[in-house]
Amino acid sequence: MGSPVLFLLLSLAFSFPLSSSAVIISKGTSLSVEKPDILTSPNGDFSAGFYSVGDNAYCFAIWFSNSRTVVWMANRDQPVNGKRSKLSLLNTGNLILTDATKSNVTVWATNTVSLSSVQLFLNDTGNLVLRNKERVLWQSFDVPTDTLLPEQRLTRNAKLVSSRSQTNISSGFYELSFDNGSYLVVVYNGPDVSGSYGYYSGLGYYNSSTLVFNSLGNFSTFDDLIIMSADYGAVLHRRLTLDYDGNIRLYSWEEKGQTWVVTWQAVQKPCEIPGACGANSLCSYVIGSGRKCSCPPGYKMKSRSDWAYGCEPEVHLICNRSEPEFLRLSQVDFYGYNFTIFNNHTFYQCREVCLAACDCKGFQYNDNTCYLKTRLMNGYRSPDLWGDIYLKLSKSKILSGDNPLQEFSLNCSSVGTLQSSKNGDNGTVKFMLWFAGGVGGLEIICIFVVWCLLTRTRKRLGVHDKQGHAIAVIRLRKFTYAELKKATKGFAKEIGRGAGGIVYKGVLSDNRVAAIKRLNEANQDEGQFLAEVSIIGKVNHMNLIEMWGYCVEGKYRLLVYEYMEHGSLADNLSANVLDWEKRFEIAKGTAKGLAYLHEDCLDWILHCDVKPQNILLDSNYRPKVADFGLSKLQNRNALKNSSFSRIRGTRGYMAPEWVLNLPITSKVDVFSYGIVVLEMVTGKCPSRSVLVVDDGGEAEHKRLVTWVREIMNKVAANTSSLEEIVDPMLEGKYDMGKMEILVWVALQCVKEDKDERPTMSQVVDMLLPQEQDSVIVTTNSWPTIYDMSSGNLISLLRQAYFILVNLLFNKLKSFHGI
Questions:
Q1: Known binding residues
Q2: Nearest CA to 188 among 332, 305, 335, 76?
């Protein structure tokens, strides 16, 4: 009985117009650009029709009726002529837009088909709908341009694309969409770069890959992220727009002032948005004045009418023919496009490396770390930034102006203007230069003496091969490709695979079982490969995988490691073979290995991809961190042109710095370590959300970190039990005190602000059993342990002495090239 009645009601609803003032297009009818007919929503809030975008140029669009603010366009990148162009609903059910001046060529279509009657109408939400009696064939809500309206969903199959400028509605350089990890990411596709930069949108993580907000100004997500507009609660006209500058803003219509007001935005400082001012340019931000763009010294604006094209050198350097020099810019950084990063380098070593590299445009030098820049992207000047940038410019250009090391400051009152600092302290500067020269001369004499000693040592040890390249390490064996192919029986047994390459099990000629990694990138310079293998080969720690040898032959690059009987931590977690004691010891051992990489070995190394797959277990389930230093062994040209997601570790374990293009420090490994510990404790994968059922019986999805942090807050308030987050596979068999410490340490490691995270050595201290004479002093959010016993104090002083000796030796070693 119900079906015929329902069919009759649907037929009646479909056959009547939505409003007496609304225009409805049926089969065989059309809207002409020359006629004033428009589609109107029943409530009158929205209109759809031909919208003028230039001289005799039109797009079919939807706009707010009161402000004529466009929220959707069909043909934003291909406007039609103002004469005889039309939107037609064909008898086949296809809706097309034709341009009369191009022989009625179709510039846009829905590509729909329907044998029954079809109608096109605009509803009260601003959604343009094409449907027949049975279903919706097409709707504008599924294909947004740069704007979302309340109740309009942004799904994995759609994206927002910014406009080109405030006055140009064509597609711009920013795209908002879901990445592979269900994060909403804004990616910059500028004139000179494509998909290389992005940032978290500020709208959170969505397990269902869907974004939606309501007319009250509220965003609520499955991971319990709630964002509210400043005027939340008022029923107003609202729109969420990806603006031309790459920022996401929520606008509310203010009836009194007849204007749109920003009630929420994703990024508070526009200069932090990638590509803000184009390549080779500087962005500065002044509260109340907004974003300002300018060119650094030695550069000029590429297009006087468009900052998207950035700046270009006034004098182009010719490799091996120009005489470059460096100009210092203080409190400036160019995020991204680091050619490479050198630890334990002096300023002069960093300078010489950049001079020798033709594609080095400048370098940043901070705390004995050298960052070479192959492109000057995302320039940002702010008092909050630390360190200096040294731009490589023509020596004649610098000498014709100011001192090469003179600082420049931006005059934000006029775009593109630079103002040099005063020279009132010339006497002090001259004194410092003479003093530095004297110290430098003394240092040269000392280095010459040590150089002679090291040369004798090098000759005695024979550490050069016939090509003049540094041998990786004396204890490393150089294998031939034929040997490794035989050991693996033609690379038959694959035991692991990652972004860097494939790992095979093999048996060497001396009957040792080995793990042989074949690197993907194979066109790296042999000398550079050997130099970087030597860094990995020198590392020796009980919680780090040991390298036995390498192969560099033609296009082949392979590394030979000790074989781990119990495979990776990931394999063991999925197989449920790890009890509480093993998990706690793995957490401690992994922390010790990372702390050694960060602070104790001569060549400090960042891992940048800490995850269970890279933590291997030996026969006693002792953890050994693998794949450290492999980022150095990838072809830099490939890395330089890599996609946004490829060069930034593994989804779920990545620190926020990667996506925000902030300087990368050891704290990225700390963040990833914290995620790994939470995975060991809870047994839940961080790349998937946790399904949580509240007291009311309603289910919702939450991120792993958010879920654990909420439970621990309830544990602290005695309203919940730690048992709630512990892996059920442990069956309650664990040390409650150690478990609380482990979870607490992990939550400190995954702080959003990297400065609030502990170092790995501090993590080790927090996990080791404390003696009675230890005093825990809480600073900020993590404890530092000061041991007051005399014996341990002597040990601490002894360690400090050896660290200083190692630093001195490393400096001499780097200078000499060992």
A1: 517
A2: 335
Q: What is the DSSP secondary structure assignment for residue 89, as one 8-state letter?
A: E
How far is 196 from 188, CA to CA, in rounded Å? 7
**Domain range summary for the chain, segments of one domain joined by +:** 1-143, 272-421, 477-562, 571-625+642-787
Residue 507 backbone phi and psi in degrees, to 5: -120, 120
Structure tokens at 219: 């965003």
Place of tokens 């404390």: 770
Residue 465 known to be catalytic: no
| 243, 603, 609, 727: the active-site residue | 609
Closest listed residue to residue 481, CA positions, set 530, 553, 562: 553
Does 477-562 match 571-625+642-787 in CATH topology? no
H or E element in which residue 161 lies = strand 160-163
Each residue of 48-78: b (16+ CB within 10 Å) or e?
Answer: bbbbebeeeebbbbbbbeeeeebbbbbbbee
Binding residues for ATP: 517
The whole-angstrom distance between residue 432's C-alpha and the CA centroid of its chain comes to 41
Question: Which parts of 36-132 are beta strand (E)?
Answer: 39-40, 46-54, 57-64, 70-73, 80-81, 86-89, 95-99, 105-109, 119-122, 128-131
Average pLDDT per 10 consecutive residues for the chain, totaling 818 residues: 38 37 74 86 94 90 94 94 90 92 86 91 94 93 95 88 89 85 76 58 55 76 60 85 91 89 85 84 76 87 84 84 83 77 84 87 84 86 78 73 36 28 42 59 66 53 36 65 93 81 91 90 63 74 89 88 91 89 95 88 77 92 86 40 44 81 85 95 84 64 86 86 90 91 94 92 82 34 34 42 47 43
Instruction: State which fold the 477-562 domain adopts.
Output: Phosphorylase Kinase; domain 1 (3.30.200)
Q: What is the domain class of 1-143 according to CATH? A: mainly beta
For tokens 């027949």, what's the residue?
A: 132
Report the amino acid identity of residue 681: V
Whether domain 272-421 has CATH 3.50.4.10: the reply is yes
CATH of span 571-625+642-787: 1.10.510.10
pTM (whole model) above 0.70 = no
